[in-house]
Every structure is written in structure tokens, then in C-alpha cells.
Amino acid sequence: MTQDSPQGAPLLQVENLGVRFAIKRGGLFGEKRYLYAVDDVSFSLKRGETLAIVGESGSGKTTTALAIARLVDAYTGRVRVAEQDVLGIEGEDLRQIRRKVQFIFQDPYSSLNPRQRAEDIVREPLQSLTETSSEDQQKIIDRLFASVGLRPEQKRLFPHQFSGGQRQRIGIARALATQPELIICDEPVSALDVAVQAQILNLLRDLQAEFGLTYLFISHDLGVVQHMCDSIAVMYMGRVVEYTDRRSLFNDPKHPYTTALLSAVPSIDKKRRAEMKRISIHGDPPDPLAPQKGCHFANRCPMATDTCQQSQPALTDKGNGHMVACHLVT
Amino acid sequence: MSDPLLKVQNLRIELTTRDDVVPVIDDLSFELAAQESISFVGESGCGKSMTALAIMGLLPEKIGRVASGSIIFDGEDLTQASEDRLREIRGNDISMIFQEPMTSLNPVYTVGEQIAEVLRAHQGLGQQAAWTMAEELLDAVRIPNAKRRVSDYPFQMSGGQRQRVMIAMALACKPKILIADEPTTALDVTVQAQIFDLLNDLRRQTGTSIIMITHDMGAVAEMSERMIVMYAGRGAEIGGVDEIIEKPLHPYTQGLIACVPHILATVSAERERLLEVPGIVPSLREFGKDQCLFASRCPVRTDICLQKRPPIETDPSGHSVACWHGKDAS
Ligand SMILES: Nc1ncnc2c1ncn2[C@@H]1O[C@H](COP(=O)(O)OP(=O)(O)OP(=O)(O)O)[C@@H](O)[C@H]1O
Ligand SMILES: Nc1ncnc2c1ncn2[C@@H]1O[C@H](COP(=O)(O)OP(=O)(O)OP(=O)(O)O)[C@@H](O)[C@H]1O
Ligand code: SF4
Ligand SMILES: [Mg+2]
Ligand SMILES: [Mg+2]
Fold first, then answer.
1. What does DSSP assign to residue B174?
2. Smallest Cα–Cα separation from A144: which of A213, A45, A219, A50?
3. Which candidate, A8, A221, A256, A292, has a CA 20 to 30 Å from the CA of B182?
4. How many angstroms away from the CA of B275 is the closest CA of chain A?
């Protein structure tokens, strides 16, 4: 379905990405300040694999994804998809990138146009982003409906005539329509009941195996992430604090925030509950508008030292590509 | 053994919908002891919140009513109690944390005023005493800097803090039973862990019983001794949490547990495909039919399942299951 890039070159490369939002404070001459929603974020993702981004609410997961898809503007950094620069391009080049990078949104209720029939929702990106003939469009739509487990007669229905899980299937079919290189899934199952969630997660994995799809997968559910990802980036206040492969992260978490996060996940596994000592982190993250010198996590970190208050730790390789941003991890 | 604090017997709640009268709760029985925590689980629309509202005497006006059965609280049948008496009980003995914290806090009053109001109305405290107590309660639910934050408006607080304010309000009258309807949905796992710890501490310190409603089996395992699996308004399975998680007897419970990618203590390379429970919860119109309502989704269904509602069978340990094949289903 997609042509292969040269051996080893990742499909997605993000380097030192930064997104900031201008926040106006007070009256006409209020000084302009910036909220640094994404700050010096780097990672890469191989074709056919899944990279998960986790982290607390407001840590910048969605903004990172939106910047990669050119749905918000980055002010610095570099994003490459299939060896092609994404930031700074315009016109036809941008249209090509929109075809190659597709989004599956969290909310299957509000992300579909209620006045469009299911098949027209799936057709829309084909029309706006490709030159496919209407005959071929129909063939693609028919195939996609089968791939995501919807019946042919459901093509003519409107979104409100579908259940939540079925609506998410339409969203997936739409995302697949242009044969994208990269699919960004932002909380794709969190609005769904567990049984339907399992159907969608299986579907995403089946489609990945069948078409060699590459996913950037955002979820707050660490069980789901553990099941879906090949590698994982943990974000805290706009920065990546830990980034490594699936097994290293879950079996050998190194950053104090990651450790606390994993220990907070409720589990039905008695053994895990017995072994896992909950590390509680107190308070709230600091005000994202008030910049601080040191590590962003320092005010809540159970291990913080003076150094942590003073200087920001860089994301560095602590062995075998296990990247951690913490002064105390060696 | 003394009488349980709460005893619900053969409860049937009917809703009058546009075309019909349907049992949204159908022959539900369970008990809750003092200081015990019991959880309700099940997919969306199975009647979990409705059960809670029935106990609170807050069924939807005009359309909802107790058709039969009893809710005995401390020896008194709440289904027979007057509206005044129910209001008194809600203020003093049973309180509830609702599913959406933002909609249940009043945006135009400070959180301190709202807590103080509860204390004045139900504990008869004076202005000053109520305010001081409000501060203490905010401190008890671990809102940092309670003395200052007590004058905050709800919008000035994070989602987790608002939920803690809701808990503080629910605790203001030292209830014997606290009903928490999805108290942590939409919160970060680290915040969820704090709220769970808080609820568990309160239970130990004040002896409050807790009824928890949740979608998350992991949360059930961490919070409760017993659980009730609800399906389409009926109790599918009731029993000890450890026992049910280890050996669920009802096919629905088995599905609910197996379809979720639970976080594992140690991650290996292989990933099993998630078990799927096909289909969705039947619509309200189907509730009340004389058959097993799970039959259309059940992997071990036989003819009898479609012909007659399965009886509730209870073993000597109090583990009960409503399934024609609940004994051999394992
Ligand atoms: N358009 C915007 N204007 C100003 N600030 C924004 C905007 N979009 C996001 N932010 C801020 O940027 C930060 C990162 O937000 P983002 O939505 O990326 O977080 P997230 O990790 O996806 O959180 P969640 O888990 O809640 O979805 C937050 O502080 C948020 O308030
Ligand atoms: N006010 C109402 N009027 C009509 N039907 C209602 C009303 N409230 C609830 N219902 C219906 O009653 C059934 C049970 O609803 P309930 O709110 O108890 O579900 P729940 O198990 O709490 O679900 P969720 O997990 O989504 O909160 C559902 O079919 C719902 O649509
Ligand atoms: S009664 Fe029959 S259909 Fe219902 S859960 Fe049991 S086996 Fe399945
Ligand atoms: Mg987000
Ligand atoms: Mg509910």
C-alpha cells in the first residue's frame, strides 16, 4: 500500500519541536506572554510501528500531534514524514502532507458531520486531497466499509443512526481513505465502553498488520497503551521526560514521574498490587505560564534535590537508547 | 450478625418512556454493611446511576418510580418515606458525588460558600463555624493551601480539585453512606490515585460505607470488597471482588474482564488478541423481557436463554449469579 523508505530511515522524525500559544494578559497594552505547550520534543517512529504518547492532562500530547499534522503551527523544530519536511511547506506540498497524515479523534460524536451520510464522510478526504475518479472513490469506500466491519447498507446512514463504536469505525475508515503514511489516534477509544473498545483496538491492530500502518497513539489509559505500542514517550509539562521501547518502559521505568504514573494505575492483578508500592505525587503541576528554572517536575518529585530546582535536565540516553530527562537517573 | 446498614430487596424501578413503561432496574437485591465498600460495574446504560438515584430518592421526576421492592436503610424503608424525610436523609445520612463535578457545583459561589451552606442547612452550624469547618474539610480532602483556596470559585480549580471539593461537600454531613458515581472519570490516573487513597482513609477513619460506580475493574479491585455486575437493569453477578475477578461465573462478567487490556506487572514480547464481546447493551425497550438480556451477545447461549429469564442462584458464600449456565460457565 505504501512504498518503503530506505532501510532504517524512520517514517516520522520529530526534532526539537516547539509550539507556543500567545496569551494576552490584561488590557490593550498587556504584555504578550507565551505558554510553551510543546517544548523541545524529539522522537522518531518506524514504519509499521506504534509510538504512544502518555502524560497528564495539559502536558502537550494533543498539541504535539496537531503540530505534526500541521493543524497548529510550530514555532521551532523539524518534522519529517517519509523523509519529507512538513513544517514550512505550503500549497500542493501541504496538501500532499495532509493526505499522508490523518487523524482519528477522541470523540466519535462530534468529529463527524451530522448532516453527511457515512459514505460521504469517508469520501470527503478523497475528494479534497486526491484526484481519484468517482468510480474509484466508490470502490475504495466499499472496501473500507468492509475493512472496518460496517455493512454495505450502512453507507447511506447518518452519524446519529450509528452506535458510538460504529461511529468510531466511520472515523477510522475516513482516516484510511487517502492511504496515509501516518495515522494519529488521539484517545481513539476513551469515549467507548470497554466491550466496544476491545473491538476497535483489535481492528486498529488488524489494519496495522494488513496495511503496514504506522500509528502515533495518544491515550491516558496505560493498559491500552501497553497493549498497543512498540515505543512510548512520556510527557510532562510540554517536555518528553522518558522515551524508550515498550518493554523497557513498563519493566524498567526510570523517570520518577513515570514510576509514579505506573504505580497509580489501578490493577486487577493481585500480584501487581502487592508488589507495587504506590508512589503518590502531591500538589498540582506548576502554572504553565510561569516559567521556572529547574526541572518542571521538581515541585512534586519525591526525589528532588537542589540541582533539580536549579537546572533543567536534558533528555539523554541512559543506556540502550533508554532516554530519560532526570538528574538523578544514571 | 447484625442487620446490614442498607438492604435492597427485589427492587424494581420503572421508567415511563414515550411508548412504554420499562423496568430500568429489575429485581435487584443486595446488602451493604457498615464500613463496607461495594462497587457497581457494567457498561453504559445498564442502570448503575439509576440504582444510586433510587437509594437517594432522586429518581427522575414524573417518569421514574419504585414499582416494587424495598430499600431498607437503618431499619427504615426508604421507598415508603416522605419527601421531607428523604431530604433529611440526603442531608445527613447518605450523600452522593455525582458523575459530572462541574455541573453539580454552582459557578457563581465560592467553594467555601457552597460547603458552608451544606453545613448550615444540615448541621445547623452558624456562619463562622460553618466557614471554619469548610476550611477544615478542604484541608481534609488535601487541597493545598485550603485557607486561601476556600475563597476560590469552581472555575479557578483543576478538575481533580473540583472533584475533591465535591467529596468535601458530600462529607460535610458525615454520612453513613457515600455514593460515588464515577468519581474519577476524566481525571489523570495520578489524581485518581489520590482520590482513591482519600476515600479509603475516610472509610477507615469515619466508618463511612462507600458505594462506588465505575467502568474500571481495576478501580473495583482497589476500592471494594464486594461488587455487583449490572447488565440491562439486572444484577448479573454479585459477590466478593477477589472471588469474581479470579473466577467470574457469568459470561458477561467474563467478557468484561477479558476484553480489557489490563496493565501487567511484567511485559513480554507477545500480545494476545483482546477478547471481544460482540454487540452492545440492548435499548431500554428490551429491558424486562422474559429472557436473558445478554443472550444476543453470549458465547454459551442455548435455547432456554431466549425463552426464560435465568433465576438468581446464590451459593453459601453469598456469591450469586443470574445465568442458565452460570455454574458450568468457566
Ligand atoms: N489553542 C490554545 N491556546 C492556548 N493554550 C492552549 C491551546 N491549546 C492547548 N493549550 C494549552 O497547551 C497545553 C497543552 O495542551 P494539550 O491539549 O496539548 O494537552 P494534552 O496533553 O493533550 O491534554 P489532555 O490529556 O487533557 O488531552 C495546555 O496547558 C493547554 O491549556
Ligand atoms: N431521565 C431519564 N429519562 C429517560 N431515560 C433515562 C433517564 N435517565 C436514564 N435513563 C435510561 O435508563 C437507563 C439506565 O441509565 P443509567 O444512567 O442508570 O445508566 P448507567 O449504568 O449509569 O450508565 P453510564 O455508565 O453511562 O453512566 C439507560 O438506558 C438510560 O438511557
Ligand atoms: S443465561 Fe444463557 S445467554 Fe444468558 S448469560 Fe447465561 S448462558 Fe449466556
Ligand atoms: Mg489531548
Ligand atoms: Mg451513570
1. -
2. A213
3. A256
4. 7
Q: Is the pLDDT of residue B4 over 50?
A: yes
Q: State how far Cα B9 lies from the chain centre.
A: 17
* Buried/exposed code over B95-114 (b: 16+ C-beta within 10 A; e: otherwise): bbbbbebeebbeeeebbbbb
B87, pLDDT greater than 80: yes
pTM for this model (two decimals) = 0.91
Query: For A264-320, what is each residue's pLDDT tens digit?
Result: 999 998 888 888 788 888 777 777 877 678 999 999 999 999 999 999 999 999 999
Flag if B260 and A272 touch (Cβ within 8 Å).
no
Which of these CATH numbers, 2.60.410.10, 3.90.1580.10, 3.40.190.10, 3.40.50.300, describes B6-93+173-328? 3.40.50.300
Find the residues whose C-beta lies inside 6 A of ligand 2: B 15, 24, 42, 44-50, 60, 63, 284
Please check the confidence at residue A224 and state whether its pLDDT lies above 50: yes
Q: Which residues of B touch A195 (CB under 8 A)?
A: 43, 255-256, 259, 276-277, 279-280, 297
Element (H, E) at B28: strand B21-32
ipTM, two decimals, is 0.87
Domain boundaries, chain B: 6-93+173-328
